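Amino acid chain:
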Amino acid sequence: MIIFTIVYLFGLTAKFYIAVEGLGLKCLRCDDVTYPQLCMNLEYCSGGDVCSVQRYRKDNGDVRFWLGCLPATHCAKTPNKTVLHSNKRAIHGSVVCNDCCYGDLCNVEGCGSPAFPTTRGPVCFNCPHTLNPTDCHHVTVCGTNELCYIGERPLFGQRYFTSHCEDIHACNNHISEPIVFGKKRSGLNARSYTPCSGCCHGDLCNINCNASFTSGTVVNTGHGTTTKPNGQEMPGNYAFYVHQGTTFNGFLVFHNITTNEGSSYNASTGEFTCKFSGAYVFSWTTVTEYGRQGDLDLHVNDDVVGTSHTDSVGGLKNKDSSTGLVVVNLQIGDIVRLRLVNGTLNAEYTTFAGWRLDQNVSFHAKVRTAQLRPNSSYEGLVFQDVVTNNGQPYLSGNGTFVCPVSGLYAFAFTIEAKHRHYIVYFFSNGGHKLNTQGVWADSSSGDFRDTSTTLQLFQLNAGDAIYLYSGDRDAKLEPLRSTYSGWLIQPYSGMSPPTPAFMEQLTSTSPATHSAVRFTREALDTTGSFHYSTGYTVPKNGVYVFFWNMEAYNNPLTSVLEVNKRPYGSTVTDGRATHYDSGSNVVVLRLRANDIINIVQSSSADGDQTIISGYMLYE
C-alpha cells in the first residue's frame, strides 16, 4: 500500500514522501568514511526516524563521518564525546557537527559535505541474488550513460533478484522468456510465469520489479507482455526558447533559436522531441493585430493538450497578445509542436519555450465548463479537467493545491473572460489573499474575449493550500483556455543553498517614457540580486526562466526583456478599447554571472498587475 505522510520535526524541514508500507526513509549508512559521498551502504529507517550525518574528530585527530538513521528527537542533541546509536556499533571521537534531514539519501550532504554532483547517473541498488528487492542494502552511483536495472531469475528452485547499473544500450536486451515449471514441465498441470526485468531512471528506482519502467527500454513486467522501445533515455538538462515562427502545413516552425539545451528542438521541423521522460513546462505567446484573431493549439503527438486565443477585433485595439502555459508528462519520442488552427498571427512577436522539471511535484488543470465565482473566499475556483498531477498535490474537487513539502514553488494560471472584466488572485489557507499581484482580464467592451496569464513564485510550508479566487462578483471563467498549473522548484532541506529566484511588482503607474521599469515592491529574492535602480543581477552562471506581465491603461504598450541592453523577448498590449489590457511572455536563457536583466517599456505601465519573476533552472 502507498502511504502519504507529512511529518513536522523539531526545527527540521518536513518532507512529503511516498513509501512502501513497512519501509521508512532510505538513508546512507556508514560508520567511518572520509566523505559521505563515498558511503555505498543503505538502511531503511524505522517510523519516526530521520536521516543523519555526523562529522567527528577521532582520538588520533582524523576527521571522519558517520551516516545513518536517528530518531528525530536526537537531532537537536550533539553529544560531545561519543556518537552512539542504539543497536549499532559506537564510534569514539568528538562530534563537531550533527545534521538531520528528511528524504531518501538526503544525508549525502550536510556538515560541510557536498551533495552528489549534478552531472551523474542515478544512484541504484547494487546487489546480486537477493530473495526480495528490499533485502538489498548496497548502492552505487551510475555513469551518465547508465540506468538502474532490476531483474529476477530462478536458481535452485528459488526466485532471486539482481540489481545494478546497466548501459542504456544494453537495457533494450532484457527480455525474459516464460519459464515453465511443474512436475513434468508439460501437460495440463504445468504452470509458467515470466520473470520481470527492466531499466529505469531515478535514484533508487530499481527496488520494485513490478514498477513502470522507462519507455526507452524493453521491459518484461512479469505478466507476459513486452513494451517495445521507441527510443533511449538520454538523461540531462533540457530547455529551449525560440521566436519568430512561420507556418508549414499549419504547424509553426521557429527558425530563430536563442536557447536549445539538450538539442531537442528542431528548427527545420518546429518539433521538440522528448529524449528524457518526465514532466515538462511549455509556454507560448502569440500576437494578432488590426482586427484579426488567432487560435493556437499545443500538440503532444496527435493530442491537443493546450490552446490559446488572441483577439484584436476592437476598432481601437490595434494589437492583442495571449500567453499559454501547460505542464505535461512526456515519454521518450513524444513530439511537441504548435499548430495554428485558424486566423493570422504576427510572427515578429510569436515565441515558444519549454523546460524539463527536476522535482516530481507538478500539476496542470483546466476549466471544463464555465465557472462562476464561489460564494465565499474560503472556496476556490474549480479547474475540473486534470491533465497532470504528479505527486497528487492538486485536488480537483475544490481547485486546491496542497504543498507536500516546504519549499520554493511556481504557480501559473490563465483566465479567459467574455463580455466582462474581473481580477483573480492567489489565496491560501482559508480565505487569505496570498499577495496583491492579481490578473485582470477585460472583455467588457464589445464582442471580445480576453485572456491574461501570470507566473508567480512563492516560498511555502508543507500543508499550505493554494487556490484561486476573484473579488469581482460577476467573475466567470470561460472553459478550455482557463488553466491552473504549479510545480515544486526546490524542497527546503536546510543543507542546499537556495535556488536563485525573485519576483518584483510595480505598485504605481510608471512614467510615460521609453525607459526601464523600476519595480517598487519586492515579493521574493532568495539571493538578494534584484536592485530597484539597476534591475536583476544574475548571481551565477546557469539557465534561467523569466516571466513578465505588463498592464496598460488607455494606451498601447510594448516592452522588451533586455540582457545587458540586448533584447530577448517582447510583450504587446493595447488598453485603448477596454481601458485595461495585459501582455506577457516567457523566455529561457543561458546567462553568465553579473549579467543585468531589465524590462524596458515603450510608454506608461499600470501598477499592481505589472510584474516580473524568474529563477534558475540549472547550472
In short: The longest strand covers residues 278-289. The mean pLDDT is 80. Residues 50 and 126 are 23 Å apart (CA to CA).
